[in-house]
Amino acid sequence: MRGFAESKKEKKRRKGNRAKGNRTKVFCAEKTRKGLSAENLIRQNKGPERRKIMEDQIGKMEREKRRDRILSALGAGNEPQSAGALGDRFGVSRQVIVQDIALLRAAGVPIVSTNRGYILASRRQAARIFKVRHTEAEVGEELELIVSLGGVVKNVFVNHRVYGHIEAELNIETRVHAAEFVRSLGGASRPLMLVTEGYHYHTVVAPDEETLDRIGFALKERGFLVEQ
How many domains are there within the chain? Predict the structure, then answer.
């Protein structure tokens, strides 16, 4: 009987411990929901949960530090830097750098992608207006040609004989942006150039005049550039 009683007592103790553990988990979850700091959560938790919180915090700090260093690297040089080169410099893969750049852009950092790598838009000093003409089917090709050579298509405008100057902001920096713009055309949405028989203008910005010269040459070679 004594052994049986002790067994029941032991069961009751284990049940109490489980209940206490569940209350602790609920308490921590509630505090997390209410915004309790990770540092306090670490103090309250032990074992695997504590290690996971600490690893998450360390990982977050490392990611933020790496993004700061990426910005410093882009700001320190005059030449575009590739994702591969940045990855080698900071000991991560090219894909990690691409993801970091995407997050920095989403946060409003003016990073521009060129065919040679990334550059801060604030360093883009040169600008030029190109008069071009092509078919509606060649809109994407023209835009991709410009951004692949390091330019950013700031706008498109036409000078209509009746309606005068008509302009639309574009800010197309990458091939992805160019593809998204082309997909947006269709149905009732048509290119502005159609009102002037295909003739239109783009303001293009780039790191330097040499880049703009290369863009102008490529547009001419392709037959898009209209000599003024």
Answer: 2
**Tens-digit pLDDT string for the chain (228 aa):** 444 445 555 655 655 555 544 544 444 444 444 444 445 544 555 566 656 666 666 677 788 888 888 888 887 766 788 999 999 988 999 999 999 988 888 877 778 777 678 888 765 568 899 999 999 999 999 999 999 999 999 889 998 888 888 888 888 988 998 999 998 887 778 888 888 999 999 999 888 889 999 999 999 999 999 986
In which domain, by residue range, is 106 found? 38-120
pTM score, two decimals?
0.51
Torsional class of 117: left (φ above 0), alpha (ψ -120 to 50), beta (otherwise): left
List for the chain the helix, strand, coil content (%; round to 5): 60, 20, 20
In this structure, the answer to whether residues 216 and 140 fall within a common structural domain is: yes
Going 178 to 180 to 183 to 184, the CA torsion angle's sign is negative
Statement to judge: residues 61 and 91 lie in one domain: yes
Shared domain for 170 and 102, answered yes or no, is no
Q: Which residues contact 50 (CB under 8 A, 6 or more apart)?
A: 42
**DSSP secondary-structure letter at 125?**
-
